[in-house]
C-alpha cells in the first residue's frame, strides 16, 4: 500500500497493491493491519455505497456532529470522482481550507478522511459508484452539511451547474454551519 500525504495531517491517499495478470487484477481492498501501521486505530462499523447516474452530480459537503462524527475511507467501484475534503475544526490553522483528489476505478486510490472534515464529491462520468467505510453509525439528527459553492471556501469544482439533492441545494454557508469539532 502506497501512502500519499495531503496538506492536512490525517487525510491520506492510499494506493493498494494491485496484482495484475492476464485475467485482470486482485487487490486487498481493505486490511485493518495497514491502518494500524499508519496510525489509524478507529474501527469501521458501517459500509456505504452510492450510485450517481449522471456526470456532474455533486453529493455533499456532508459531516456528522460530535459525538457521532465520522472518519471515512472512500473508494470508487466504477467511474471517476473529484473528491473534496474541507477542514471544519474551528481551532485548526487550516480551518475552512479544502483539497480535492481524483479517485477512480482506474487509479484504485482510496481517501482516508479523519473526523473533523466535511466531505463531498463530483462525479465525472456516468454510473459512478462509490463505496466507503465509516467509523460511526449514521445519525440523521447529527447529519449536517455546507453549501458546495460557498464563495468563502471557493472550491474549484469541475462543474458549475451540478445535479444536487434538494437537501444539498439548501445547505448553509460554512460561516452559518453548526460545528462542534
Ligand atoms: C449517509 C446515509 C444516508 N442514509 C439515508 C438518508 C437518506 O434518506 C438517503 C440518502 O442520503 P443522502 O442524500 O445524505 O446521501 P448522500 O448525498 O450520498 O450523502 C453521503 O454522501 C456524502 C458525500 C458523504 O460523505 C456522506 O457520507 C453522506 O452524507 O440515505 C442512510 O440511511 N444511511 C447513511 O449512512
TrEMBL record:
It holds the Pfam family dTDP_sugar_isom. GO terms for molecular function: dTDP-4-dehydrorhamnose 3,5-epimerase activity. Gene3D superfamilies: Jelly Rolls. The active site is at residues 62, 132. GO terms for biological process: dTDP-rhamnose biosynthetic process; polysaccharide biosynthetic process. The record marks 138 as: Participates in a stacking interaction with the thymidine ring of dTDP-4-oxo-6-deoxyglucose. It is an enzyme of class 5 (isomerase). Its EC number is 5.1.3.13. GO terms for cellular component: cytosol. Keywords: Isomerase. InterPro entries: RmlC-like (IPR000888), RmlC-like_jellyroll (IPR014710), RmlC_Cupin_sf (IPR011051). It catalyses: dTDP-4-dehydro-6-deoxy-alpha-D-glucose = dTDP-4-dehydro-beta-L-rhamnose. Pathway: Carbohydrate biosynthesis; dTDP-L-rhamnose biosynthesis. Belongs to the dTDP-4-dehydrorhamnose 3,5-epimerase family. PANTHER family: DTDP-6-DEOXY-D-GLUCOSE-3,5 EPIMERASE (PTHR21047), THYMIDINE DIPHOSPHO-4-KETO-RHAMNOSE 3,5-EPIMERASE (PTHR21047:SF2). Catalyzes the epimerization of the C3' and C5'positions of dTDP-6-deoxy-D-xylo-4-hexulose, forming dTDP-6-deoxy-L-lyxo-4-hexulose. Homodimer. NCBIfam families: rmlC. This is dTDP-4-dehydrorhamnose 3,5-epimerase. It comes from Fredinandcohnia quinoae. The gene is rfbC.
Amino acid at each position: 500500500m502506497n501512502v500519499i500525504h495531503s496538506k492536512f495531517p490525517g487525510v491520506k491517499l492510499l494506493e493498494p497493491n494491485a496484482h495484475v495478470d492476464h485475467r485482470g487484477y486482485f487487490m486487498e481492498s481493505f486490511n485493518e493491519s495497514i491502518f494500524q501501521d499508519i496510525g489509524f486505530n478507529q474501527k469501521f462499523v458501517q459500509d456505504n455505497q452510492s450510485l450517481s447516474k449522471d456526470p456532474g452530480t455533486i453529493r455533499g459537503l456532508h459531516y456528522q456532529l460530535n459525538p457521532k462524527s465520522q472518519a471515512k475511507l472512500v473508494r470508487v467501484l466504477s467511474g471517476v470522482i473529484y473528491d473534496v475534503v474541507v477542514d471544519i475544526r474551528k481551532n485548526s490553522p487550516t480551518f475552512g481550507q479544502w483539497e480535492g483528489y481524483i479517485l477512480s476505478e482506474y487509479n484504485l486510490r482510496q481517501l482516508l478522511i479523519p473526523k473533523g472534515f466535511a466531505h463531498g464529491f463530483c462525479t465525472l462520468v456516468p454510473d459512478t459508484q462509490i463505496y466507503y467505510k465509516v467509523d460511526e453509525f449514521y445519525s440523521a439528527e447529527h447529519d449536517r452539511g455546507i453549501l458546495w459553492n460557498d464563495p468563502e471556501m471557493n472550491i474549484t469544482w469541475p462543474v458549475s451547474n451540478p445535479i444536487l439533492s434538494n437537501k444539498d441545494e439548501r445547505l448553509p454557508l460554512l460561516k452559518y454551519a453548526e460545528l462542534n469539532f
